[in-house]
What we know:
disordered C terminus, mainly alpha, 2% strand, Single alpha-helices involved in coiled-coils or other helix-helix interfaces
Amino acid sequence: MFKLCLDYDMRVTEKPVSSYPWYLRPFFWNQKRKYGQILKPALIWARVPRLFAAIAILYGVLDRKGSPIDPVLRSLITVRVSQINGCRFCIDINSAVLAKRTGSMNKVEALERWQESELFDNKERVVLEYVEAMTYTGRQVDVGLSQRLYEYFNEDEIVELTGLIAFQNLSSKFNSALDLPAQGFCRLPESAARPNENSND
């Protein structure tokens, strides 16, 4: 059974686009061109324009074409962090990007139980273990995991990897706390579309 994740019960209201500073409107225009709609988190972050600009610049650096982290790996990171933190918007949009980058929904649907799936290679498994160690409350990154990361990444790449995981935690926790809704980018199985209520247990 599938459901389209759409809900509009947000805890902070968005303002009319015309009320935002003129220098932020090109960001909104670009989102509408790329996604067909303005992203609700952007409208909320933009209530504090300097904060929005800083977040947008940081995201642009982490998701740039020249990133040493493979695009599919970046998407696996963003979806898994989003699942753990129960961010409906993030699961929706990042799952759509992951499906586009891999050409199917297979990894999207298997990601929540990646340990049991044969779809993920050893490099992806180490990264997903790192994601969970950084994201789940009460877990730590131990020496053994750090050493396994060095089998696949150099120090600069580990900094980028860690930065992306940390950024996605910031983004997904912000969106989840304010109950920002999915915007209908990706049709997911109902179990995958529903945030994990026990994600931090």
